[in-house]
Every structure is written in structure tokens, then in C-alpha cells.
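ok new one. same drill as before - C-alpha cells go in, u give me an amino acid for every spot. 286 of them this time. try not to just spam alanines like last time pls lmao
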């Protein structure tokens, strides 16, 4: 009876008011669903003391993670033989930064791959720059930051916005409507960042120039500084692996092919530190 009265009142409302009300209601329902899903995925497992737990998104179809910063961390732990656990979620983000990956360690949350490594190096007493000269540390930092703070944004806009096949989005099972909504919001964010103000050709050029400088510096060396890989290789590999294997329909794949020594470098890092690569990636999503 009461419900009938409510529907009568709604029916008497002007069309515009009903349309706005419908939109607000849909938004509220979607927000509630999101909160429930987020809450469900936020429940932490209990780990033994001093366990390194890396929270990140689900495994990618062609790479172990669609976030290069998680590949960097996992590669580093593998290189140094440091045991770690991985938690995958599409929803969970670090409370402080709303980003992934983040570390959970004895109940504490530490976001940002670089801060995670710095924190663990103190906690577990290891030297992140072991065996490197001050000059190499300077060069390594400069190349790492170029890759993580410049090349990264070129591949983000390429993969998530320019790629018209939307294969990256489809790998999450995203509908066309949701893909269009997310693309729009990423496009806006990248305009604010600055990279989004350039054309696809210009961004391809920026990516290519970054990769060219890396390619020149690497030359015929096995790793950045010779025979032994270091932390900087892990960070650079994270970005290059995404470009090489997870650009989906974007231009990244063809850009990196212009630099055969970088492709060989990716293969070398993969073979050395990820012998289980093919079993780790989610083949079913490809
Ligand atoms: N400097 C950070 C960058 C982390 C970052 O930008 N993560 C991206 C994924 S690649 C992110 O969380 N974006 C927000 C989101 O996915 O909701 C790090 O080294 O961990």
C-alpha cells in the first residue's frame, strides 16, 4: 500500500526530476556495490610475522602484472632470493595513496615500490646498491626515473586510451560502456598530468627517444652495468616488459622492436628471473 503511494508520487513528478532522480539512484546503487566489493576484497589474510606481502592487481594475460611497479618488486625479490607473498585484487589500493602496489608488513601498510624497497632494505638489512659505484648509482637513478616517470606515462596513455582494440580493458572483462567511462576519466587525468596534451604521434616519438637513450647506454652489455643485474634493471625491466608484451593493440610493441638490444634484454631478464613466467601469467585471459 505504502509502496503504491510512493510510486504514485514518483509518477506525478516532472520527467526532468525523474531523470535526475534515476541517475542519482543508479549512482548510489553503483557506489554501494563498489563499497561491498571493495570491503570483500579488503579482508586481510593473517601472515606469519615478518612476511613480505605485496598487494597488486590480478595477473596480466601476457605479463605477471599489468602494473610495472609490481614486476619491479617481484623481480628484485627473485633476484635477491628474498621470500615474498603476493595478494591480487582488482579493488584494493593503499590507504594513503590509493595506488598499487603496496607492502603489507607486520600489519603496516607501505605504498610505492621505491619506498617499499627502501623500507625493506632497512628492515631486512640489505644494500639496494650493492656492488655499484657512485657513478653507476647516479646513472641508474636517472634511467630509472626516466622510465618510471616519463616513458611510463607514454605507455599508460597508449595502452589505456589510444589503443582502439581496447584489449587491455577486455582482459579484465570490462564492458564497452565501462571502458568508455574509464577511458574518458583517464584521458582527463592525463591531460591534467600534461602527457595527454600531445598527439599519439608525438607521444610515440617521446617513447621512442627514451628507449633509444636506454638502447644506446645498454649497448651490447647483458644488464645495465654489465654481467650482473641490479635494482635499476628490475625497475627498467618492469616498464619495458609492459611495453614489449602488454601494449595490446597500442604502438608500444612496435616502438620497442626498433631496439633489438632492448628486446633481447627483456628476454634475458625474463629467462633469468622468471623461469615460471608462462605459468604465472593468466593465459586464459589472452
Ligand atoms: N610511484 C609509484 C607508482 C604506482 C602507480 O602509479 N600505480 C598505478 C598502477 S601502474 C596505480 O595504482 N594507479 C591507480 C589505480 O590503478 O587505481 C610506485 O612506484 O609504486
Amino acid at each position: 500500500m505504502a509502496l503504491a503511494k510512493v510510486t504514485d508520487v514518483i509518477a506525478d513528478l516532472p520527467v526532468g526530476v525523474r531523470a535526475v532522480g534515476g541517475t542519482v539512484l543508479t549512482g548510489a546503487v553503483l557506489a554501494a556495490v563498489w563499497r561491498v566489493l571493495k570491503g570483500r576484497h579488503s579482508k586481510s589474510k593473517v601472515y606469519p610475522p615478518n612476511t613480505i606481502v605485496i598487494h597488486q592487481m590480478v595477473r596480466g594475460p601476457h605479463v605477471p602484472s599489468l602494473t610495472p611497479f609490481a614486476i619491479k618488486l617481484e623481480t628484485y625479490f627473485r633476484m635477491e632470493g628474498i621470500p615474498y607473498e603476493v595478494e591480487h585484487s582488482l579493488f584494493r589500493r593503499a590507504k594513503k595513496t590509493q595506488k598499487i602496489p603496496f607492502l603489507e608488513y607486520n600489519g603496516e601498510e607501505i605504498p610505492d615500490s621505491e619506498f617499499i624497497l627502501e623500507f625493506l632494505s632497512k628492515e631486512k638489512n640489505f644494500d639496494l646498491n650493492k656492488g655499484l659505484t657512485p657513478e653507476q648509482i647516479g646513472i641508474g637513478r636517472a634511467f630509472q626515473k626516466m622510465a618510471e616517470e616519463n616513458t611510463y606515462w607514454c605507455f599508460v596513455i597508449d595502452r589505456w586510451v589510444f589503443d582502439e582494440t581496447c584489449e587491455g580493458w577486455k582482459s579484465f572483462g570490462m564492458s564497452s560502456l565501462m571502458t568508455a567511462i574509464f577511458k574518458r576519466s583517464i584521458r582527463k587525468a592525463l591531460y591534467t598530468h600534461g602527457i595527454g596534451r600531445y598527439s599519439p604521434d608525438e607521444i610515440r616519438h617521446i617513447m621512442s627517444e627514451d628507449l633509444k637513450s636506454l638502447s644506446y647506454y645498454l649497448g651490447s652489455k647483458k644488464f645495465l652495468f654489465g654481467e650482473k643485474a641490479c635494482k635499476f634493471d628490475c625497475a627498467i625491466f618492469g616498464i619495458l616488459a609492459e611495453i614489449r608484451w602488454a601494449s595490446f593493440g597500442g604502438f608500444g610493441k612496435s616502438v620497442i622492436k626498433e631496439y633489438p638490444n632492448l628486446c633481447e634484454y627483456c628476454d634475458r631478464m625474463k629467462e633469468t628471473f622468471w623461469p615460471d613466467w608462462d605459468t604465472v601469467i593468466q593465459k586464459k585471459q589472452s
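The chain is about 60% helix and 5% strand. and btw The first strand starts at residue 53 and ends at 56.
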